[in-house]
Prior knowledge:
Layout: H1 7-22, H2 29-36, H3 40-46, H4 50-69, H5 80-93, H6 95-99, H7 101-107, H8 109-135, H9 145-168, H10 175-182, H11 186-189
Helix pairs in contact: 1-2, 4-5, 4-8, 5-10, 7-8, 8-9, 9-10
Amino acid sequence: MLKKQSTPQIILDAARELFNTDGAVSTTTNHIAKECDISPGNLYYHFRNKEHIFLDLLNEMITAFDDIFLPSVDFESMQTEIFFKKTCKIIYEYRFIYADLSYLVAFDDNFRKKYQSIKKKRSADLKSIIKDLNQKGIFHNLPENEHLDIFINIIWTYIEGIITSLKTEGKKITLSSIESSLKHIIIPLKPYLNF
């Protein structure tokens, strides 16, 4: 028997879809309540405001990324293609965060602090992964620590801008278009890879 979704999860799923299709700025709590076929009062019983929904969806995205960034993950044995596909899928499912990131961090201090905190942690995780892969011979001639931090920040900035770049080029935001764009990230990595 399928477990029935809780009302907060129904609200979050509906909000994510509306934010993805209509944008975080123009979607209101009334739109979300209507999509869920509940009253605005019922929505506010579970979520104080739209900022609360934004933060919970950011936390969902972080949890989804945890599955591929936890220290227990063996990056050497994990197929690169699986890692890549999972990353693209998460970006696609939470694409409104990337599309409206400057608005979201300006709109709510809690969101901004959480995003900055996870960005710092993920950057450190990525640095650790790259160093580990370097020791295993997958990377070579890596930049020194300070330059490696800059290099990782450039990669992060590229990922943050993928959705905006696709929009400005007039391309449709699909899982496939995200995958095609993200594959370009291999170009700055090529000089450091042993394959």
